[in-house]
Task: structure prediction
Amino acid sequence: MTSKSLAQQVYSKMMEKDYCSQWMGIEPLIIEEGLCKLSMKVKREMLNGYSILHGGIAFAFADSAFAFASNSYGRIAVSINGSMNYAGSAVEGDILIAEAKALNVSYKKADFDVNVWKEGDQNILYYFRGTVYRKSEEVLS
Result:
């Protein structure tokens, strides 16, 4: 049996108190340095008045993938900017996939892209781009 990677340990530590991600029911698919792929089933409580996924929930889902990917290096990383484009919509019962990938990582800042799509359909519904400030403190200390 292999031990958990640093990225997986960070994910586990963060999830202990990430009550929003817990409520969303996110599940890890890939947790690696600079990369996080999650899944989430759209629940009725996540819908807006038009019976589609609320934009804030879509943003929160992408933001969770962004957070786990940006902290995967072991240093505490906090968001200083994030924006999302909405190219489609999801409905109750859809399984969504969010994939966050590092674009640029420097000592103090890092940029990430997150794409969100429906399972089984590679058409991207939501495009997220974010920047984090990387503190000197370690996540696991």
Notes: The mean pLDDT is 97. Residues 55-71 form the longest helix (17 residues).
